Amino acid sequence: MTARKKPTKRPARRPAKRSVARNHTHIIIFLMIICGLVTLGIGTGLAWFLSLNLPDIRSVDDYRPLVTTTLLDRGGRTIGTICRENRILLSYREMPPLLPKAFVSAEDSRYWEHGALDGWSIFRAFINNLRSGRRSQGGSTITQQVTRALMLSRKKSYLRKAKEAILSYRLDNMLSKKAILTIYLNEIYLGEGAYGVEAAARTYFGKKARQLNLAEIALLAGLPQSPSRYSPLKHFDQARARQRYVLNRMAEDGIITPGMARQAYHRPLHFYDHNARKEQNGYFTEYVRQQLEQRYGSKRLLHQSLTVTTTLDSTMQAAAVKAVLRGAENVRKRQHNRFTPQGALVALDSRTGNILAMVGGTDYRASPYNRAVQAKRQPGSVFKPLIYAAAFEKGISPNLMIEDVPLSIHNPDGSFWRPHNYSRRNYGPTSLRDALVFSRNIVTIKLLQKTGLRPVIRLAARAGIRSPLQPELPLALGASPVSLLEMTGAYTVFANNGLFHPPVCITRIRDRRGRIQPWPGESAKRVIRPETARQITAILHEVITRGTGRNARGIPDSAGKTGTTDNDMDSWFIGYTPAVTAGVWLGYDRGRSLGRGETGGRTAAPVWLDFMRSRCKPPQTPHLHAVAPARIEGL
Question: Would the pTM of this model clear 0.70, i.e. be above it?
Fold first, then answer.
C-alpha cells in the first residue's frame, strides 16, 4: 500500500482591511509627529524672535515708578499733591489685610494657585469671545496686568499677548507672588487721577489705605476693570453694583462671611471732595511746587515720594478765600457790573515770614494765574510807608510840617508834571504824621525830594521788594509795579520792630524713609531801627482809627495803609498786628476801573477786616510810639 500524502497546510491570509488601517495609523502618527515638531519649531522660533525685542525684565526688580509728593499744612493735614501720576507707594505690610484679598477675589481669584498664566481663565475668555463675536475678554492674571502696565503698550493684539505671556513667565520666576501683588496694588489705575490703592484711598475717601473699612475696600477693588464706568463720583449705581460683586466674591472665597458682606454693602459711603481742596489751596500749592522745583528739580519731586510740611494755616486759608470772594462780589453788585473783579490776599506770620494764607484769584480752576505772586501792579499809596521810614531813618521827625500846596514839576523833556491829592484839594501846612494818615500825595512827593530816591529804593530792596523801582518822583505815589507778596512782606518790617524775614512757604521735608530735612530759609536782617518801626506803626494805627483805613477798624492794636491807583483801577490794603501781616488787592486783569469810588479804604480794607475777624486771634497790645509836636517847615 502506498502511503497517502498529507495535504500541505497553507498559512492563513491576513485580511486586507486590517493591513490598510495599520498603515494609515502609522501615517497619521508620523504626520502628527511632524506637525508637532513643526509647531514646536515655529513656536520656539516665534518665542525666540519675540524675545529679541522684549524689555529687560530685570528692570521690574528695581521698581521706581512716578510717585506723589504730598503737601501738608502746618498742622499735618494734606492740602495738595505734586505729581505726574498721583501715586503713593505702600509696602505689603502697610496695607490692611483685607485690601489685597479683595483685589485678588475681584481680579484673579486663583492668583495664589496658578503660575504666570491661568489656563482655565484663558479658555473661558476664549469661549466667551467666540460667543460674542468680538474680543471682549482677555483672561489676564494679575501677573499679566503688572507686565502690561510696566513693560508693554495698551494696544490690543495677539502679538502683544504673546509678548505678555513670555514676560509674565519671566516675571513669575523672578519675583514672589507677594512682590508682584504689591507692585500691582501700587501701579493699578483707579480713576480720578489716582494710581495705586493709597492714592485712591486719599482721593475718594480722604484717608489713608490702612484706615479703610470693608465697604470702602470693596468699592476700590471693583474699579480696575473700568475706573471710569464704575467711578462712584460719576456713576454711583454702577459702582455700588460692582461693590456688591466684590463683596460676594470675597464671601464665596471664604475671606469674609455672607453677613459681613451684607453689613458692608449697607454701610454708608462718604466721599472726599478733593476738587474743593484744590480750589481752596491751588494757588498756594502751585507756589510751593515752584519753590521745590527750583531747589530740587522735577525729577526728585516725581520719584522720591517726599512729604512736605508747609507753613499754611488751613483755617486762615479758608477764611481768606471766603473774604476775597465776598469782597469781589460786593464790588460787582455795587457797580452793577456784569463781570466780577479779581482779588488776591496774602497773610504772613509777622515774626517769621511764614506764609499763612495765599489766595491768587477768585477761581483757581478757571484761572491758575497767581495774582498774589505773579501779577505786578502799581501799589499806589501802600508804598508810602517805605518813603516815610527812609525819612525817619535819616532823623526827620514825624511831626515835621510841610506845605500842602499846588505843585508843578518840570520834566527833562520840557513838560510839566502837576500831581494832586486824591481829593483834588490842598491842605496847607501838614505834619508828616497827618500826611501819611490821610494819604496826602503832595506832601509825600516833597518828602521824597527831601529824603532822596536812592535811600528809599535801597530800603525797599532790603525789605524784600525785588521788582525794579524807577528812580523817579512818581515813586512817591506807588507808580512802580510790585507784587502783593512783595509789598506784604515789606510791611512785616514794621510789625517786627524793623527786622525782615523773607516770606517762606516750607518748614521741612521728609523722605519715604522718614528722614527729616529742614527747609533752608534765609536769616532775618535788620532793615530799619526799632524806633523807626514803632513810629511807622503808631502812624499806621491812626490810619485805621481816623484816616483812610477806617473801614478796617475792629481788630485790636492793628495798623495798616490803603492804596488806590489812577481811575480806581487797583484797590489795596495792607495791615498788620504783631502776629499777622495781611495784604489785599482787588482789580481787573486787563486794567479797567473797578468803578467810581472803589478806593482802597472802601474796597480792600473791608476784605482785610473780614479775613482778620474770621480766624485771627487778637494779639498782645504793641507799644505805639508817641511823637511830640515839632516845628513847621516848608519845602
Answer: yes
